[in-house]
Here is the input.
Amino acid sequence: MLDLIKRNLLKIVMLADGGFSLLAGAVLAAFPAPIAGLLGPAFASQAVLGIGVFLIAWGIFHLAAGRTESLPPAAVRFAIIGDVLWVVASATLLIAEWNRLSGLGVASIAVVAVAVADIMLLKMIGLRGRQPLVAA
Here is the structure.
């Protein structure tokens, strides 16, 4: 069982990231005003809507890449770069808008940033596991 997971780690991570991003994006896009109200004055409902629409596209990208027979390394690298940017943007937002976020807003951004960083590390491990080792 663990061998199967190791061989398919990257595919599993990409599909899970795609499904979660699509679901989260749909919720954010469907309810931007109430969610913005929960996060604090740093977030306008238009920003929540924009993040939701982005996450829907991000989810579709991950699902499309994860469903391919052979996952293109360039797609995985693109996903990793996107994850890095998400974590950096989250940290920047927490620092710059700390006083304009609710406690729930701070916690939500921090938890999601940690989750994205974890998923990014799994993508990196999965990508590294697919590349042949080079003899020194």
